[in-house]
């Protein structure tokens, strides 16, 4: 006999729908050949958590069910009603020993309703006592809905350790004493943890197994871009699956270091900004030397920045995003490589190959390719690089070393050498966490190019070429760095070639590319990683609305319309900067803000708009498509500290800010509750509305929306509002629409561009 148990967690309010879906499926499962038992159990301590348990006569019966229409219908019925799960939520077990030593013990007891509180107190005490027993791992308390039957489901490391504990009456009596009165009449079943029968068959025969699974969104690539997309989808309750062909995450800093100010704002929204700051260092400025002479020095600690420029190795970025994703119940599936996909009007059918030779077929509504410079998704989608993929002729080397010079702390250092006005040497040094530790990038010694036979080396980091030595690093420092500079403690090194280009399209149908799968450029300040994170930040909220059936027909098309021009501009700028000391010395501050993505605007997007009758109205505020700047000085009744605007606009939904000052017509203010109700109905609740009042505006006494005071006048000054006005802020923090005075009809038309699918 084989038993499966699947743990699922209902979305708020969906508990009864899950019960109804199970009642329908249970009858169908019971009619299948080989089914012995099926039941829906409840977590006794969490009314929103269920366990679907089935028992089957043999492997064939289980596989027949899982690959058949009954399981598919049940999965479809549960998908929109459950939160995303993890691989640990499913357990397969047998009633006879197998290869796995772990055992699971199911103790079934009857607890009268009149003694339920006593039993639960006792069980909590038993769980605490058992924590120190050798071999005991964990347990959960389940109950059969509508009955007094409870199941104590315990997991032990080995059968021997369990039987040793049971065989000693004193031990069993001591630990289980608090619930001993309920164990006078109980049923105990012993199971052995097992692999899925498909995996067993593959291991024994050496043949591939084909496992079918479904999800809302399949994400290929668990780098920063893919992880960001997964976090944003999971935050919105969208079932997503993240796969990565690398079996283990990278452990060295051979990729991006710089984390831009805009990315830090995104991380603050995702809840990892503090952890990033704790793990990184601030990059506080840059210094440029040409032929040994300092040509300029700039501080990056500018007033008004939401965050400074952070130095953080990419492997740390991936660690933080992975840990955040785990709190949302999603973990990357490593060692799984995409080998192909097909798509139709309703979804995508993808094939994955496992490191063990197994294959899986995944059905998803959408697919996001975040699989890097050598993207398989890009290849299968038939995307090409506009104008071809460019490659710099030079080979470069990277190294992680300690340097003994006296340079300003936290500064990025660029040493250039020119002969007859032509640059023929370059050394870029980025500080890392640690005393005197730097990431160094420079031209590779000539012998590496000779190893290629004069042919193009492959783009990216080359495994075919030997690693540069400390002597190679020292030779570059001797030529370009201040006299007497010495390098030590080489941790790792690599040779690479810079490629650059951007794909002709960012997707087709239900498949999209993001990050390095869509654009490649020189590693100038971590542009690739930061741009990829912002690709995912832009795409994920739109895909989430599409999955839920709320998106207007053109919403997903806006991803390419908004992000491709930005990618094109960044690629061009990075290529121009690669071999110059600066692009525009006359306006270094603006250039830095541009590099940090703080000036990014989607002003040409088909999604954004405005309705302004006075040409001077809102002139000083952010334009449609601009990043909505944060500010402080807001107050709200019942809150004992000032609020920031991000306290209102943060989250996973749109935010409508309706402003009114003392000059506003009373009728216009009185109409705000009706406007609030209309937009919430039009978006199925996917919008938060706030009424922002100037300090001199009277109290309107409205039942809705919530009232916030612009006590410091910062909103009025920064957003340029007067009288009555409104700003619609998108989930990605950009202005979607604005009007002065409030124009409800124009707002509705704009919302229809996003939520045209809402009913």
UniProtKB/TrEMBL annotation:
This is 2-polyprenyl-6-methoxyphenol hydroxylase. Residues 614-638 are annotated as: Disordered. GO terms for molecular function: FAD binding; oxidoreductase activity, acting on paired donors, with incorporation or reduction of molecular oxygen, NAD(P)H as one donor, and incorporation of one atom of oxygen. PROSITE patterns: ABM. Belongs to the PheA/TfdB FAD monooxygenase family. Pfam families: ABM, FAD_binding_3, Rng_hyd_C. Its cofactor is FAD. Keywords: FAD, Flavoprotein. The keyword Metal-binding does not apply. PANTHER family: BINDING MONOOXYGENASE, PUTATIVE (JCVI)-RELATED, TRK SYSTEM POTASSIUM UPTAKE PROTEIN. The keyword Mitochondrion does not apply. The lineage of its organism: Bacteria, Bacillati, Actinomycetota, Actinomycetes, Micromonosporales.
């Amino acid at each position: 006999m084989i038993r499966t148990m699947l743990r699922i967690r209902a979305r708020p309010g969906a508990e009864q729908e899950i019960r109804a879906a199970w009642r329908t499926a249970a009858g169908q499962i019971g009619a299948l050949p080989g089914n012995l038992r099926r039941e829906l159990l409840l977590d006794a301590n969490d009314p929103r958590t269920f366990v679907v348990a089935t028992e089957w006569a043999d492997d064939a019966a289980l596989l027949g069910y899982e690959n058949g229409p009954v399981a598919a219908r049940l999965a479809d019925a549960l998908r929109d009603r459950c939160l995303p799960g993890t691989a640990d939520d499913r357990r397969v077990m047998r009633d006879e020993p197998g290869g796995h030593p772990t055992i699971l013990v199911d103790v079934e007891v009857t607890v009268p309703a009149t003694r339920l509180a006593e039993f639960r107190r006792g069980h909590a005490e038993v769980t605490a006592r058992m924590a120190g027993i050798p071999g005991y791992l964990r347990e959960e308390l389940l109950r059969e809905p509508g009955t007094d039957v409870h199941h104590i489901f315990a997991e032990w490391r080995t059968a021997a350790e369990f039987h040793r504990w049971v065989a000693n009456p004193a031990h069993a009596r001591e630990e289980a004493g608090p619930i001993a009165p309920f164990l006078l009449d109980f049923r105990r079943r012993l199971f052995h943890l097992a692999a899925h029968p498909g995996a067993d068959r593959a291991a024994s025969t050496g043949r591939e197994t084909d496992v079918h699974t479904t999800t809302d969104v399949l994400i290929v690539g668990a780098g920063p871009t893919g992880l960001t997309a997964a976090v944003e989808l999971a935050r919105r309750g969208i079932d997503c699956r993240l796969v990565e062909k690398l079996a283990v995450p990278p452990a060295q800093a051979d990729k991006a270091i710089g984390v831009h100010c805009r990315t830090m704002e995104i991380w603050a929204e995702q809840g990892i900004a503090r952890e990033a700051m704790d793990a990184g260092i601030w990059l506080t400025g840059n210094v440029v030397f040409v032929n040994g002479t300092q040509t300029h020095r700039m501080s990056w600690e500018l007033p008004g920045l939401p965050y400074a420029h952070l130095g953080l190795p990419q492997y740390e970025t991936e660690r933080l995003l992975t840990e955040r994703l785990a709190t949302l119940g999603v973990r990357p599936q490593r060692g799984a490589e995409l080998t192909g996909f097909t798509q139709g009007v309703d979804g995508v059918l993808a094939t994955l190959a496992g490191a063990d030779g197994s294959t899986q077929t995944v059905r998803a509504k959408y697919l996001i390719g975040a699989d890097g410079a050598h993207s398989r998704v890009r290849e299968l989608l038939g995307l090409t690089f506009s104008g071809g993929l460019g490659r710099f002729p030079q080979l470069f080397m990277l190294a992680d070393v300690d340097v003994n010079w006296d340079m300003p702390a936290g500064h990025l250092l660029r040493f250039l050498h020119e002969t007859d006005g032509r640059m023929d040497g370059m050394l870029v040094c980025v500080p890392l966490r640690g005393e005197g530790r730097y990431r160094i990038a420079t031209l590779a010694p000539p012998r590496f190019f000779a190893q290629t036979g004069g042919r193009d080396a492959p783009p990216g980091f080359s495994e075919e070429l030997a690693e540069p030595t400390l002597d190679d690093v020292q030779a570059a420092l001797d030529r370009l760095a201040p006299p007497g500079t010495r390098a030590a403690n080489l941790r790792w090194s690599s040779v690479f070639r810079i490629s650059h280009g951007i794909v002709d399209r960012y997707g087709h149908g239900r498949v999209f590319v993001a990050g390095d799968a869509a654009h490649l450029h020189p590693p100038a300040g971590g542009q690739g990683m930061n741009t990829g994170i912002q690709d995912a930040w832009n795409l994920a909220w739109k895909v989430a609305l599409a999955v839920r059936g709320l998106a207007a027909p053109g919403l997903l098309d806006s991803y390419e319309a908004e992000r491709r021009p930005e990618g094109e501009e960044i690629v061009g700028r990075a290529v121009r900067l690669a071999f110059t000391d600066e692009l525009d010395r006359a306006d270094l501050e603006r250039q830095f803000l541009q590099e940090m993505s703080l000036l990014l605007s989607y002003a040409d997007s088909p999604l954004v708009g405005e309705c302004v009758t006075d040409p001077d109205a809102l002139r000083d505020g952010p334009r449609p498509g601009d990043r909505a700047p944060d500010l402080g000085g807001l107050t709200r009744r019942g809150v004992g500290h000032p609020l920031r605007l991000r306290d209102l606009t943060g989250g996973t939904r749109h935010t409508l800010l309706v402003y009114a000052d003392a000059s506003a017509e009373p009728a216009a203010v009185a109409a705000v509750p009706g406007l609030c109700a209309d937009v919430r109905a039009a978006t199925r609740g996917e919008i938060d509305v706030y009424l922002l009042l100037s300090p001199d505006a009277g109290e309107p006494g409205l039942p809705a929306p919530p009232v916030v005071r612009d006590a410091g006048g910062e909103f009025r000054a920064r957003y340029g509002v007067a009288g009555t006005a409104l700003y619609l802020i998108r989930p990605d923090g950009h202005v979607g629409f604005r009007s002065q005075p409030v124009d409800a009809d124009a707002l509705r038309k704009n919302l229809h561009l996003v939520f045209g699918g809402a009913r």
